[in-house]
Design goal:
With about 210 residues, the chain is of the alpha+beta class. It has two helices and twelve strands; from the N terminus they run H-E-E-E-E-E-E-E-E-E-E-E-E-H.
Length: about 210
């Protein structure tokens, strides 16, 4: 009997923890593919761009991928970014992150199109609408990037020292992990089912002893 209880007690603990375990890192939001041939918006410290994204479950953001246009042969070095709850609002998190580069192609407008990615410190967010803001970028040779426009479902805005406006949205993905959200009442049902199973085994063993 002691052996069975020693087996089922940790199993019960594991079952209780399962609904709270996060899923592996994944794409939490995608605003569509990198097009590289529509147009792009300057991100140079004076011209800032922000795009909305939605989270459907409690999530931890750990990285960003975005499409960029750059001068021929230039490689991305870093990007200043922010995550906000309103366009250009107070940052929930912000920083300057090193870029990882993947060259895609040279487009018809004379720019090198690339996929740029960077990591951010783990940021937990509840379900809702948020904004990815790129404030500044830098490439080799002291130049900047343009953020690739792909006309995705996101809302987008730009602002500079002299004007601002709504624009068509840009190519990007939000990376991280989403917590599994159990159905209402499922933890209680899981516990109840496990307890019933243990009691049935105990009762069966006791009946054997009485024979």
């Amino acid at each position: 009997m002691r052996f069975r209880l020693r087996l089922f007690v940790p199993l019960l603990g594991l079952l209780l923890l399962l609904p709270m375990m996060p899923l592996s890192a994944a794409v939490l939001y995608s605003n569509g593919p990198i097009t590289g041939n529509i147009t792009a918006w300057t991100v140079d410290g004076d011209h800032n761009i922000t795009d909305s994204f939605q989270l459907s479950s409690p999530s931890t953001i750990t990285g960003v991928i975005f499409g960029a246009w750059g001068y021929t042969g230039r490689t991305g070095l870093w990007a200043d970014w922010a995550i906000t709850s309103t366009p250009f609002g107070p940052p929930l998190a912000s920083g300057e992150s090193t870029l990882s580069n993947t060259f895609l192609f040279h487009n018809s407008q004379g720019a090198d199109v690339s996929q740029e990615s960077f990591t951010i410190p783990a940021l937990f967010l509840n379900p809702g609408t948020y904004w990815l803001e790129l404030d500044d970028t830098m490439t080799t040779g002291g130049y900047w990037f343009w953020w690739d426009q792909n006309n995705g479902p996101s809302q987008a805005q730009r602002v500079s020292s002299y004007d601002g406006a709504s624009i068509s949205s840009e190519s990007f993905q939000i990376l991280g992990s989403a917590e599994a959200v159990p159905e209402p009442g499922s933890p209680g049902l899981l516990v109840s089912g496990t307890v019933v199973m243990i009691l049935a085994l105990v009762g069966k063993r006791n009946s054997r002893r009485q024979r």
